[in-house]
Amino acid sequence: MQRFFRNFVGVNPPIVMKKRQRNLIYYVLAAVLMAFAGYQGYHKSSFYKSAYSEDLPGEQQAEQPSLQDKHEGQEYQSTGDLGLLDVKLPGDLDNQTVHYKAITVYFNKSYRVPNCVAYELTSTMTSMADSRDAENRANYKFERDHDVKGCPDWWEYKESGYTRGHMAPAMDMRWNKTAMEECFLMTNICPQLDEMNDGEWRHLEEAVHKWSRTAKRLIVFTGPIFSDDMDRIGKHSDIVVPERFFKVIYSPGQNRAIAFVMENRDLPNSWTNYATTIDKVEQLTGYDFLASLEDQVEDVIESKENIKDWPKYYPSR
User: Fold this and answer.
1) Is 258 within 8 Å of 305 (Cβ atoms)?
2) What is the pLDDT of residues 121-158, one digit of tens each?
């Protein structure tokens, strides 16, 4: 320490200085040097990260979320601007497209259920939805959207034997109050048996929720598969009960996709057994998903169904 004092200050430490005083000076000088070294290191690392981060192996650029995360009053701009949320429906299918804050609903006023619900789910959304400050589902109730013709009232499902099944699940919308309110609008709802809704279908929803953390960004489409002679419920028995439902998931960053088709009943097998291709869902529905992609890319990803390409998820039973 005496050499350190001599080199830094330029003189020998006073001999008459008490040991405790000398030690105090040494500690102060050491702290100053450490702080200076840390300041230099910080600015050096910041320079390299900002200027060369794309070239550094293992470095990942911070996601630029397309949702409204920073300003509560700002209008949410989804990737629908790029066409990823657009769904081409058959020309003879009754449809009204409704753009909410975080979901796009393709609503069928004749069947009084959505044809399809599309939304973007990012890792930022999921982190906010899973945080301590996330919206509490218990604070929200099902409501009719009076601006959408044919939208049913919440009470029309009462004593029908079916639950109000979210197409865009509430767990994905807890990041924002308005998103949660609109998620509980009846335009986002289809009749589902409780055994299906709270069984393997819920496990699939939980898996998609988890996948968004690693994929960083997912595009999700969910809806019923219509058929002839569907059961009907409601005040005027005009709300159709689909026999099957689909879910399509696309990861733009990883350029892969998968789909699922589940029957509206108590399912005997794990949710993973119901994986299929987007091509199969398009065949069953007549819809065209991800049409904004280049044909060559679209053809490849829509023909694959390998569940092993996606992270494993083990739901709590």
Assistant:
1) yes
2) 999 999 999 999 999 999 999 999 999 999 999 999 99
